[in-house]
């Protein structure tokens, strides 16, 4: 799944977004997808996260408290 995220983030970076994008990240891990989007010109509206690993969730919550957790 990491390869898929990298390809998606690369394509987002090449497009100038004038509006916010809402993101649904399944198997989100520590939310590195949001971290990468923050380093591009992409304006993220709402970032929804689906993750079940309690340790990954703890790290994600510490680094990105604004995420909407879906479980």
Blueprint (SSEs and pairs):
Layout: H1 2-13, E1 21-26, H2 32-38, E2 44-50, H3 54-63, E3 68-69
Parallel strand pairs: 1-2, 2-3
Percent helix: 40-55%
* Overall geometric form: elongated
Uncertain ranges: 1-7
Helix count equals 3
Summarize the structure.
This protein has 71 residues and is an alpha/beta fold.
Walk me through this protein's architecture.
The structure is a single chain. The chain is an alpha/beta fold and 71 residues long. Helix content is 41%, strand content 21%. It is built from three helices and three strands. A three-stranded parallel sheet has the order 1-2-3, with helices on one face. Mean pLDDT is 83; it is low at 1-7.
Feature tags:
71 residues, alpha/beta, 3-stranded parallel β-sheet, 21% strand
């Amino acid at each position: 799944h990491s390869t898929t995220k990298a390809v998606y983030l690369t394509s987002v970076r090449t497009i100038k977004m004038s509006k916010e994008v809402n993101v649904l990240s399944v198997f989100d891990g520590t939310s590195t997808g949001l971290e990468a989007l923050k380093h591009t010109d992409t304006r993220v509206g709402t970032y929804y996260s689906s993750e079940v690993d309690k340790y990954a969730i703890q790290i994600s919550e510490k680094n990105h408290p604004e995420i909407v957790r879906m479980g």
